[in-house]
Structure prediction request, 356 residues.
Amino acid sequence: MFGRFGHLVVAACLLSGAALAGESPLPTVKIFTTGGTIAGAGSSPTDMTNYKAGGISGDQLVASVPQLKQLANTPVEQIANVGSYDLTIANWIDLARKITATLADPAVAGVVITHGTNTIEETAYFLNLTVKSEKPVVLVGAMRPSTAISADGPLNLINAVRVAIAPDAKNKGVMVVLNDEISSARDVTKEHTMRVEAFRPTDFGYLGYIDEDKVAFYRAPVQRHTVNSEFDVSKLDKLPVVDILYAYIQPSLGLVDALVKIGSQGIVFAGTGAGDISTPERGALKNVMAMKPDVRPVMVRSSRVGNGRVVATKDYEPFGMIAADTLNPQKARILLMLALTKTRDPKELQRIFSQY
Prediction:
């Protein structure tokens, strides 16, 4: 009946039977739901693009995958029910606090967050820097809505719970699970608009795979995360405003001034190549550098390329720019927002970007 899941379900049934006999109770995995395609609902089984993200509730989503009952106890809490492009920083802070509190319960083995794929990498990285637990935190999404033929959400959700209860998943930081693949929150990014194999970890490869026989890990992140992170949002209700400027030929030079006027406290440049910024833009930055150091925006160089490091160079020393290393612009923005809650010192900021 379950096709490729047959072996998994039989094993899970044996576990469930043992639990009923009092030998080995099922672990508890708390599921936080936020909407997205995994909870999307279309007008027909072939509607793959005009569906409503978050068309079903979190409870309905989890109930639609009854095999989960054979793996773990899965209480559900709905955080939001929207496309992930409509999530907010307030949602992030709320999630970080609730996940940390949930994982402090010895009875909870791990946490799974269902999420839209458009910004799943951003939420995952924010949680990677702010959740205070060694237990597994797994974000999961889908590229096809729940009503679609061959919807990928049910298997992705099963795999996410399997990772959350896997002993080897501890101390791996926050992870993203799709398409039988486990990625680090820091490295993963969405590289395709529609295919189920849309996610790739830039530069460094997957942490592991989820196969029928087991959850297999092959590496672990070395950058600071979760319990080793210095960032604390437990008493914050907002973060410093940081924006991103995308590089291209002959950019509009007024954009930097516009960001300053609207109150940006940090600017991340999605530069060309290894984080390069055009000569005219550097000229426009003279106005920024004329501002007092305690009020001018902190500037970070990242790259629009998608892979590779951005390193500090002499050309950008006069602007006090921080090099983003391998962080893409959207993740550099998140790290800068959190870093600015701690310091504005350029050396300290560069230290932070080197360690995270």
Notes: Residues 9-21 have pLDDT under 50 and may be disordered. The longest strand covers residues 28-35. The longest helix spans residues 6-20. The chain has two domains: 3-228, 242-355.
